[in-house]
Amino acid sequence: MRILFTGGSGKAGRHAIAYLLAQGHRVVNVDLTPLDLPGVDNRIADMTDAGQMHDVMHAWAGYDEMEDHRSPPRFDAVVHFAAVPRLLMKSDNECYRINTIGTYNVIDAALKAGVTKVIFASSETTYGVCFAGGERRPDYLPLDEAHPVVPEDSYAMSKVANEVTAQCFQRRTGADIYGLRINNVIEPHEYKANFPAYMSDPDLRRRNIFAYIDARDLGQMVERCLQTNGLGFQIFNVANKDHSVNLTTKQIIDRYYKGVPAAEMGERETFYSIRKAEELLGFAPEHNWRMYLDDPLEV
């Protein structure tokens, strides 16, 4: 497939692009900073400028395409990851402005260019747990896509607004538009760098609902969305299958979630439910922290 990918130079995007390239796709990365990765085409553009987004949707991927086409071919899909990536990086109103206007511009340009598959990055923060003032617990466990999304912060608010925007575009056009509520992205080197601290102090993972997503498995999730058609507008949680701490499901509930209604779950099953992605997309995470720490840890 010929794919336009926004925000591919960021932490999550660069691993997802590497995965897509390995599947044989051609990827044009649209970002403010180019991605230094063999095989990727880069385009510098600002997603908050509608004209720039409409231009890149109708542009050559590289000089080689000029040999076979009189005008640029249409993209088969757009993957939109570009964003201010978290709270407390820019002013709250600027974070909200960039993320919402940028997402509107990207989806609008994609659909007007005839693209019928758009995948966009939403966030775990939409559930209101991650960036809440004080402690906020899920309404029930495991937390699935039907859980209320009522955040308090500008970053998560922007992601909720983007989901509504995407749903409205889908209703108008009939395109497939899938939103990914991505949990805390972990790069391969971060297992040894960060996870020993999580084992010593599980409190560090409370705001992430004790979940995580390996960056390479996020790439697989994008690929599964690209290969699955006809679902219309959908929202999917994205996480790995297990907890990010060395405690069982029961131990975590006893320590952090007493009184929270909980369905029957596996001994180490993530509280950030990925059952919908497993059932509708065939998503099957391949990496977990136990594979990458030197010393096996006993519960």
UniProtKB/TrEMBL annotation:
Lineage: Bacteria, Pseudomonadati, Pseudomonadota, Alphaproteobacteria, Rhodobacterales
Protein name, UniProt field: UDP-glucose 4-epimerase
PANTHER family listed in its UniProt record: NUCLEOSIDE-DIPHOSPHATE-SUGAR EPIMERASE, PUTATIVE-RELATED
Pfam families named among the record's database cross-references: Epimerase (PF01370)
InterPro entries in the cross-refs: Epimerase_deHydtase (IPR001509), NAD(P)-bd_dom_sf (IPR036291)
Native source species: Tritonibacter horizontis
EC number: 5.1.3.2
Domain NAD-dependent epimerase/dehydratase, residue spans: 3-192
Superkingdom in the source lineage: Bacteria
Gene behind this protein: galE_4
An annotated Gene Ontology molecular function: UDP-glucose 4-epimerase activity
Keywords of this entry: Isomerase
Keyword Isomerase (UniProt): yes
